[in-house]
């Protein structure tokens, strides 16, 4: 039986012993995407309520995995499968990064264009080269280190995209450029995904033909929680929380709206979203204690003023 499965078997209904003091500092990572900023904010909020001292580190995906392997980070709530297989595969093979659970289903991730670009004839990855001049031979990505699938598409001879450029910036920078192009009715192709308020803020359409790079059904994806090797056995109470923690598209869309539309920071957005739906706490905190061994649900409710 895999070590991870053995570790999780101990998470039944019985209360766990409080984590060691060495578990107090919890190092989380996120790559600057609003969905993961929000879910990381939820994790931080819960951990603080339990008496831990979590920190969030904004890093590219490649650096996140290297840091987990090197034990410089503990938790990553944002493994998008299959889009991140290109990053995770080597660490999975070595066993240096472990997957705890799927925390979101119904996600998707692939190339997107504005609706007027789609109506002009860009329906599929193979259509991009037909309109190369209109696109300026550019596609827009997010943070450096998080756009390998775009580089892979450009390198694929079947798509005829030789000479195209990936413009890397950030999620915010990419979406600002998309909004500018939409306002001017100019051509743009960029990374699109759900959950995300971009799906209602922008008149976007997703392209077919990306199965080779993102998987089928427009990059239909799950998102999973991952940890550095050995973390679950070292800090089983945090591990129990991670084994409970799951989200859904509507909850994330709402929380991301607080980030993007209302300008809240991730923890403030998380606190508001949790207060909107406090019933989620019972499932998330079932069998979870505070760092000093007290009932976790009571402590988090008190910290949130519930």
From TrEMBL:
Q: Which residues form the ABC-type glycine betaine transport system substrate-binding domain?
A: 25-275
Task: Please give the superkingdom of this protein's source.
Answer: Bacteria
Extract the CDD domains matched here: PBP2_ChoX
Gene Ontology cellular-component terms for this entry are: ATP-binding cassette (ABC) transporter complex; periplasmic space
* Pfam families hit by this protein: OpuAC
Name the Gene Ontology biological process terms: choline transport
UniProt-listed InterPro entries: ABC_choline_sub-bd (IPR017783), ABC_Gly_betaine_transp_sub-bd (IPR007210)
List the keywords (alphabetical). Signal
Gene Ontology molecular function terms on file = choline binding; transmembrane transporter activity
Signal sequence extent: 1-17
Q: Quote the protein name from its UniProt record.
A: Choline ABC transporter substrate-binding protein
- Which source organism does the UniProt entry give? Rhizobium terricola
């Amino acid at each position: 039986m895999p070590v991870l499965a053995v570790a999780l078997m101990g998470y039944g209904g019985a209360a766990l012993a409080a984590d060691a003091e060495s578990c107090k500092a919890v190092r989380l990572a996120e790559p600057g995407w609003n969905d993961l900023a929000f879910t990381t904010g939820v994790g931080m909020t819960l951990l603080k309520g339990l008496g831990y001292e979590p920190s969030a580190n904004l890093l590219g995906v490649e650096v996140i995995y290297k840091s987990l392997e090197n034990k410089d980070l503990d938790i990553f709530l944002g493994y998008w499968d299959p889009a991140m297989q290109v990053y995770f595969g080597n660490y999975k093979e070595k066993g240096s990064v472990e997957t705890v659970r799927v925390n979101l289903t119904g996600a998707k991730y692939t190339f997107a264009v504005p609706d007027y670009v789609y109506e002009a004839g860009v329906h599929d990855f193979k259509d991009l080269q037909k309109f190369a001049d209109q696109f300026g031979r550019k596609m827009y990505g997010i943070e450096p280190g998080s756009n390998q699938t775009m580089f892979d598409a450009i390198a694929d001879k079947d798509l005829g995209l030789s000479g195209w450029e990936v413009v890397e910036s950030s999620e915010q920078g990419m979406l600002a450029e998309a909004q500018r192009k939409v306002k001017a009715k100019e051509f743009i192709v960029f990374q699109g995904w759900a959950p995300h308020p971009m799906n209602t803020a922008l008149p976007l359409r997703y392209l077919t033909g990306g199965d080779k790079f993102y998987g089928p059904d427009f990059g239909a994806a799950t998102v999973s929680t991952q940890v550095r090797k050995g973390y679950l056995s070292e800090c089983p109470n945090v591990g129990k929380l991670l084994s409970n923690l799951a989200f859904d598209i509507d909850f994330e869309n709402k929380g991301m709206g607080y980030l993007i539309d209302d300008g809240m920071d991730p923890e403030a957005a998380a606190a508001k979203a949790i207060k909107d739906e406090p019933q989620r706490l019972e499932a998330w905190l079932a069998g979870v204690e505070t760092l000093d061994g007290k009932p976790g649900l009571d402590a988090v409710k008190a910290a949130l003023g519930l």
